[in-house]
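Interim report to the steering committee. The following record documents the input for Protein LiaI (126 residues).
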Amino acid sequence: MNINVKTAGGFLLIVFGLSVFFGGGHFAFIIPLAIGGLMLYWGIKRFSKGRAVSGIIAGVIGAMILVGSLPFIVAIGLAGAMVYFGWKMMKQGGSDADSRQYEPEAASPGYQSGFDSEWEEFLKKK
């Protein structure tokens, strides 16, 4: 089994990123995020057409909704970055140059412990 530090670190980043995405980011904030974005866009569009008062009011309300959704946006962005960099680390860690192989060493045939010699003596007595 080839395991290296980049592969293990990438796997941990992916696990933490997915836990933040599914556990830390609540998807109920997607609806206010969309409404705030649409209101901000509509307010800017109305302001550019010459309707300054209604454009400013809609833009301010949309911006307030977006600022209220800021923790959700940061959590989703952080989770996405963790998954991306974790995947990238796992792909880089697949090379054999930096990998460590964990295989037990075979015992030398000349090595005998006290148990082996006692066992052989026991078998000879039988």
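The mean pLDDT is 77. The committee is asked to note this result when reviewing the revised timeline.
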